[in-house]
Amino acid sequence: MKDKLKDSLRDKLIPFKNLIFAIDMIVETFGEGCEGVVYDFENFDQPLIYIKGNLIERELRTSIMNLILKNLHRDNNNIKDKMNIITYKNNGRILKTSIIFIHDKEKNVIGCFGINFDITKFIKANDIIQSMCKTRGIEIIKNSFTKEGYPKNIEQMFVDIVQGTIKDFDMSINEMKKDDRLKFVNLLVEKGTFSIQGSPERVSEILNVSRQSIYNYLGEIRSQKEALL
Q1: CATH numbers and ranges of domains, the chain
Q2: DSSP assignment, residue 91?
């Protein structure tokens, strides 16, 4: 079974061959604080097909970042590359991340590759330098961080998105009326949550409504967006 998985992954890597050479070179150059990854969107539930380095401690076939899912849902083939964004590892370490999306000849997005670099030590060193210089410039950097985690699988991704949305919402689920639930579902739509298989059923359980109600909300949201076009 493992040999079949390896063969399958080896076949998947062929279109990304040149990118993998580049990733290998970058990670070898910058060492253990650097990691490179390749995602193939053909299998959206298990898209991670190549890793160089072990910065995030992920395994092959794990899920994509929430940030990528959200932007793919919103922009589809027009998705823009992400350069030098700041993300967090689950243990609190601070990473500088760049993501480039890959398109086929028809300009359909088929995957992406990314580089993560651990800058935690540099931030701490900068803290010391700023403190010695009695300035607060580092606060500007810290306040600009994008709080983005790295889910290990599609299940964790779904939980992270929903829990984050509940946390940011201005009321509890038990207090929600229909308009509130509609707003909540719309937030999940904008984050690409319903690209995850089985999401309508699970969201209906969380909101204590029927699965049909979720489909009705989704239809209403779609109609509202079409009316704005």
Answers
A1: 2-149 (3.30.450.20), 156-228 (no CATH)
A2: T
